[in-house]
Amino acid sequence: MVFRIVTLLAGCAVLAGCGGGGGSSDVPGPVATSSPTPTPGATPYQTFAQQTGNRTYATSCAAGVLKVPGTVVYPATDFGASLAIAYNAGTQLFAINGPNGVNANFGPADLDPAPPASSSAAYSRTLADGFRARFIIGNGAGAGGTLDYVRSAFLAAQTGAGEPLTHYCVLGVPTLITDQPASGSLTFGQIAVSGVALEQVSGGFVTYDIRDSTVSLSANATTGRIAASIRLLGRRVDSGTAAGASTELGTFAGTAALATNATTFSGVLTSTDRTSLQSQIGGWYFGPQGREIGASFTVVAQDAAGRQLYVLGTVVGNR
């Protein structure tokens, strides 16, 4: 199920037109999809920066058509159920395919001459109909250091029907299912958040950059549960720039379940600050023994007066 709004969006009709990659603070690049089964004590992982050659990345993404009338927010996906991002080392071309008819390509000719400071690569291209397609790969910067295996990414593309579709995704070097933590409690730090929020106010909607949000992430490897609590803080975006003090947008929390035979976890988010109508989180571990974590999340909620809140975001961290 998706939720639509038909009110006027203040600021911009499409997130990619709101500067800074749509308010993203950290965005990713490719992930190796095959590694040998590890033996005890072995570490068959390359860091994200060490990867060379052709490679394909699986993703977990929060996606939405951020225009009015007709805004659509899709539920955050399981890891491996959204965009497939293939990199050809010979041509240096990213080929991106995904749900809703997404088919985008970015190469050296599309490199942004003024990329965001938080990116390792940024691509931008204006299509024949005037739509600005963008793809940004984050540099892995977290709170207090750089993450080795997981990245966040931003994509502004078009659906098969020509609708503008915004994605906030996580990707990287995923933990092998045979190498995931089997027991014990895990607490993740060095958290970095990327994303956008649209809040309904009198006369329209306000756009926020949510990079200042704070997140608590922990896992119980014994029970296969991931606990997440996301305190949404947004800086208002006007004329493509996020500025001013942060605005409290509510806290959303939930417990995600690790899949039994797949490299993913997923769950529902709820809140005591707003009524959650459709809010999810999905993602996976990255690096040896689940050293890092990445997830996408979506929020569709409303306050007591029926004013709506829409959020697309990602969170990454390590332990």
TrEMBL record:
Q: According to the lineage, what is the superkingdom?
A: Bacteria
- Asked whether the UniProt record includes Signal among its keywords, one would answer yes
Top-down, what is the taxonomic lineage of the species of origin?
Answer: Bacteria, Pseudomonadati, Pseudomonadota, Alphaproteobacteria, Sphingomonadales
Q: What is this protein called?
A: Transferrin-binding protein B C-lobe/N-lobe beta barrel domain-containing protein
Q: Which keywords fit this entry according to its UniProt record?
A: Signal
User: What organism is recorded for this protein?
Assistant: Aurantiacibacter arachoides
Signal sequence span is 1-16
